[in-house]
């Protein structure tokens, strides 16, 4: 068939395998070329769906995503059990490690690092940990919570100095230093795709988050008794286990993805907006949390605020990644492969003709298994 | 010798198995007319395809999702992506725009990597078990701060409120200045900083920055009691800080502070702010005047492990507080 949008002769399918455009009637979905109703990394979802795993774990296939979701839920259940048992120090440790460990498993599963795991993991997660240690030690030197005491009698009030430091200066500095390990990845030329940049950025951000949590909570880890009254710890544990790592990972992933686009000469308003969005989201997250804590707002509202910020950031990342995949997948040559999303055996270029998945977002093993086919297509019909 | 694609006519480098423009096979069988294209896009599914749109009639998805169907390509195992032992006869690798995704030609294919789901879950469960053990061990092995008491009363009283008139009890601290507002005066020893001051509240920061004194006084409308003030402060600290509770070994007591009657107690909690946390403690006093129309508040806040030292260091300052309103 001839693609309605790129005008190339391509294999028959719902999607053009060269440009990814949706073929046929798409009035109900809007623009068939950008097909935002079919997120390029996971075509079963809309781009505007704030899904954590299909955004930050883009190489996982449809089934693997569910396995990681269940693993994450198991981790959260473990934290809840530890919280209910009053083992807060243990719950803090599990919260700090949960998402970074899941991401490490993901990197192993998708083999994003291909043949150079030591260099890639060292410069992303390892580098993030080193930067996180240095920055958090610095942060604890400059930020003294007792300097910003409030009027308990009035039960309200926000210290402007503390807010500017915690809600503005420190988030901006963090977003400036967190991408550095991925930026200086020595073999970055071997990983030219935007999706690679995103994953490396998320890994660096999660390394930072892990170090930040361990250093930041070191006083509590060594100061709390083994078992305490659970109290309101569940709110801070939720932030520590879910929203803090997701924010740190997604913000850094967004910035590093923009850097990767810049290196390809594709920096545009969308990517610059992504960097601004990452910094703004971090500021809003930290400042909003600080203000609500100081004014003794119900902690549930703090979690809702944090979830809203992270959700908005995830959607913007999907928007940037979706369009980057649509642009970049076209360079892949034709080959026989298996679509990681719909599991069809296909002959395709950059996109699965069946479900529209961008095949640059396939796990490395699937990419490497692409191979030319000797048998002629009509054999299919004969077998039937 | 360049190969012309039978479908689109594009010239392809010698050795290409597929047209680099349209993907049409360039092998002998490629001479088949373009109408044979149904096998191009998708042949046999490995499993029921989740999510993606259903293929419309006439599109390239030729095989229904039935497990009994034979693999369309014959060389691709149905239960897993391309197997290493698949006997493929390669001519030569085609030309690809990017070297990273080019097929490996006649070389042995790497097996498709797939982490068993049991391993993923086991890793998370193992993480929980190991970290629970580590956390408990760390908590058991490290020295915990102990707090022996809070602010001391200058005139023990059996009732929470009722002492009539607040009295000034100035004390002399060498080199001290003073900070004052509409409702109170407090000495400021050398090295201490006035961190906050308004018409009702004065907060001092210790020279090493690891503790603060907050003193407040002001009108209550409607009139209230010291117990109500204590409850309000407890609620605020419990909401703001996880684990807020009376420090082990301490309990609320009634008494007077420089003439103001009220309640003394000590709270232990954890300050969590912007990813940082500190085990902290506050020695507190809240009182009201005889008709409940004026409130008096004192808070000594510092790290939990430093509270006993901090309480001793701040004793002259606390003794020098003057409540202006009665």
Give me the CATH architecture of the largest domain in chain B, please: 3-Layer(aba) Sandwich
What is the number of independent domains of chain A?
2
Sheet with most strands of chain A: 2 strands, antiparallel
Total number of helices of chain A: 13
Helix-strand topology string of chain B: EEEHEEEEEHEEEEEHHE
Average pLDDT of chain A works out at: 87
Strand order of the largest sheet of chain A: 1-2
Radius of gyration of chain A: 23 Å
Question: Percentage of helical residues of chain A?
Answer: 55-70%
**Shape type of chain A:** elongated
Number of strands of chain A: 2
Task: Report on this structure.
The complex is a heterodimer of chains A (384) and B (326). Chain A is an all-alpha fold and 384 residues long. Chain A has 2 domains: 1-35 and 333-384, no CATH class; 52-330, no CATH class. Chain A is 59% helix and 2% strand. Chain A is built from 13 helices and 2 strands, in the order H-H-H-H-H-H-H-H-H-H-H-E-E-H-H. In chain A, strand 1 and strand 2 form a beta hairpin. With 326 residues, chain B is of the alpha+beta class. Chain B folds into 2 domains: 1-117, no CATH class; 177-323, Protein Transport Mog1p, Chain A, CATH 3.40.1000.10. Chain B is 16% helix and 25% strand. Chain B is built from 4 helices and 14 strands. In chain B, strands 6, 7, 8, 9, 10, 11, 12 and 13 form an 8-stranded antiparallel beta sheet that branches. In chain B, strands 4-5-14 form a 3-stranded antiparallel beta sheet. In chain B, strands 1-2 form a two-stranded antiparallel sheet. In chain B, a hairpin with a 5-residue loop joins strand 12 and strand 13. The radius of gyration of chain B is 39 Å and the shape is elongated. At the A-B interface, helix 2, helix 3, helix 4, helix 5 and helix 7 of A face strand 3, helix 1, strand 7, strand 8 and helix 2 of B. Strand 2 of chain A pairs antiparallel with strand 3 of chain B, so a sheet runs across the interface.
């Amino acid at each position: 068939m001839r693609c309605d949008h790129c005008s190339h002769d391509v294999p028959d399918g719902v999607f053009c395998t060269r440009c990814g455009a949706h073929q046929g009637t798409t009035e109900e979905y809007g623009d068939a070329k950008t097909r935002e109703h079919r997120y390029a990394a996971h075509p079963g979802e809309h781009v505007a769906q704030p899904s954590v795993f299909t955004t930050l774990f883009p190489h996982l296939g449809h089934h693997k995503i569910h396995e990681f979701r269940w693993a994450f839920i198991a981790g959260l259940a473990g934290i809840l059990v530890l919280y209910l048992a009053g083992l807060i120090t243990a719950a803090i440790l599990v919260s700090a490690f949960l998402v970074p460990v899941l991401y490490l498993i993901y990197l192993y599963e998708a083999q994003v690092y291909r043949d150079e795991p030591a260099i890639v993991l060292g410069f992303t997660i390892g580098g993030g940990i080193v930067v996180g240690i240095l920055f958090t030690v610095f942060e604890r030197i400059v930020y003294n919570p007792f300097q910003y005491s409030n009027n308990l009698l009035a039960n309200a009030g926000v210290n402007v100095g503390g807010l500017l430091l915690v809600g503005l200066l420190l988030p901006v500095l963090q977003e400036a230093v967190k991408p550095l390990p991925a930026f200086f990845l020595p073999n970055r030329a071997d990983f030219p795709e935007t999706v690679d940049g995103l994953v490396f950025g998320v890994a660096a951000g999660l390394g930072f988050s892990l170090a930040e949590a361990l250093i930041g909570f070191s006083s509590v880890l060594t100061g709390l008794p083994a078992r305490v009254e659970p109290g309101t710890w569940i709110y801070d544990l939720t932030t520590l286990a879910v929203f803090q790592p997701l924010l740190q990972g997604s913000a850094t992933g967004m910035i590093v993805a923009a850097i990767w686009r810049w290196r390809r000469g594709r920096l545009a308003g969308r990517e610059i907006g992504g960097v601004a969005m990452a910094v703004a989201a971090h500021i809003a997250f930290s400042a909003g949390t600080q203000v609500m804590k100081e004014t003794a707002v119900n902690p549930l509202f703090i979690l809702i605020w944090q979830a809203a910020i992270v959700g908005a950031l995830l959607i913007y990342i999907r928007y940037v990644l979706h369009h980057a995949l649509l642009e970049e997948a076209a360079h892949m040559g034709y080959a026989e492969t298996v679509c990681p999303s719909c599991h069809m055996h296909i002959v395709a270029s950059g996109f699965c003709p069946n479900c529209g998945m961008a095949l640059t977002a396939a796990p490395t093993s699937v990419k490497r298994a692409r191979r030319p086919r000797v048998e002629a297509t009509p054999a299919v019909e004969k077998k039937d | 010798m360049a190969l012309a694609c039978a479908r689109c006519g594009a010239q392809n480098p010698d050795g290409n198995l597929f047209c680099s423009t349209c993907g049409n096979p360039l092998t002998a069988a490629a001479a088949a007319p373009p109408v044979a294209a149904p096998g191009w896009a998708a042949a046999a599914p490995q499993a029921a395809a989740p999510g993606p749109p259903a293929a419309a009639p006439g599109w390239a998805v030729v095989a229904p999702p039935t497990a009994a169907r034979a693999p369309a390509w014959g060389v691709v195992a149905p239960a897993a992506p391309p197997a290493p032992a698949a006997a493929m006869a390669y001519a030569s690798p085609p030309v690809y725009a990017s070297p990273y995704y080019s097929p490996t030609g006649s070389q042995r294919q790497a097996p498709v990597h797939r982490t068993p789901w049991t391993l993923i879950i086991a890793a998370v469960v193992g993480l929980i078990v190991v970290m629970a053990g580590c956390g408990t061990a760390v908590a058991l092995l490290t020295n915990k701060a102990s707090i022996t008491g809070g602010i001391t009363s200058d005139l023990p009283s059996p009732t929470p409120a009722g002492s009539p008139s607040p009295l000034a009890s100035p004390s002399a601290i060498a080199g001290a200045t003073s900070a004052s507002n509409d409702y109170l005066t407090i000495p400021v020893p050398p090295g201490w900083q006035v961190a906050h001051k308004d018409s009702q509240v004065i907060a001092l920061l210790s020279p090493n920055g690891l503790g603060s004194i907050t003193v407040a006084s002001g009108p209550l409308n409607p009139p209230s009691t010291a117990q109500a003030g204590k409850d309000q402060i407890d609620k605020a600290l419990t909401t703001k800080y996880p684990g807020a509770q009376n420090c082990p070994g301490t309990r609320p007591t009634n008494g007077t502070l420089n003439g103001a009657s009220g309640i003394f107690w000590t709270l232990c909690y954890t300050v969590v702010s912007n990813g940082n946390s500190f085990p902290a403690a506050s020695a507190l006093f809240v009182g009201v005047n005889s008709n409940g129309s004026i409130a008096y508040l004192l808070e000594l806040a510092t790290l939990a492990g430093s509270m006993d030292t901090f309480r001793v260091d701040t004793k002259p300052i606390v003794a020098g507080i003057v409540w202006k309103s009665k």
